[in-house]
Amino acid sequence: MRILSKVLLALYLLTLLWLILFKLSYGIRSILASYQTRSLNLIPFVTLGQTGLSETVSNFVTFIPFGLLLSLNFKKAALWRLLIIIFIFSVAVETIQFIFAIGTTDATDVVTNTLGGLAGLLLYRLANKVVKTEILDRVIAAVGMTLFITFILLRLLVFKVRY
Fold it and tell me: CA 54 from chain center: how many Å?
């Protein structure tokens, strides 16, 4: 179970990077070549009217598994330490987007990503009060692997994007 949870965390992080940085594209070179513009917003939620609520909610929901998987893999770590990891990861990804000019660097994303990760951390702790740790871990791992495999199959077979 320990190895599966670490593999699942690694797969999630790689997929998350692929999603955020390369928009799930296989043509990474074309993504890097086509963007080449930098956009930086340091005021959270100021662009909410332009980007819409769906992107904000999507960022929040996308990071919930990060909190769940960190909790699953680092049970003894303090909540604030895991939250710092989520925050640093989010800042790092936004910084990479800015450096390589492959998307909008937005403080709103950092806030919503971190809040989504916090929701996952809290969800794990709340569920662990009701369900035994071993059962909770198995459910998270099983659901996580099922969702990951489903996502990859949908991406490969249904949502074919050509660049």
Answer: 15
In degrees, rounded to 5, the angle at the alpha carbon of residue 122 between the alpha carbons of residues 52 and 84 is 75
Q: Which parts of 45-117 are beta strand (E)?
A: 102-106
Cα distance between residue 134 and residue 83, in whole Å: 23
The residues spanned by each domain of the chain are 2-158
pTM: 0.85
Neighbours of 68 (CB within 10 A): 25
Residue listed under structure tokens 């949502």: 159
Signed CA dihedral, 51, 55, 59, 64: sign only = positive
What's the rounded Cα separation, in Å, for the pair 106 and 13?
20
Per-residue pLDDT of the chain (163 residues), as tens digits, is 789 999 999 999 998 998 888 776 666 666 656 666 777 787 888 777 676 677 888 889 999 999 999 999 999 999 999 999 999 999 999 999 898 888 788 899 999 999 999 999 999 999 999 999 999 999 999 998 888 888 777 767 765 544 3
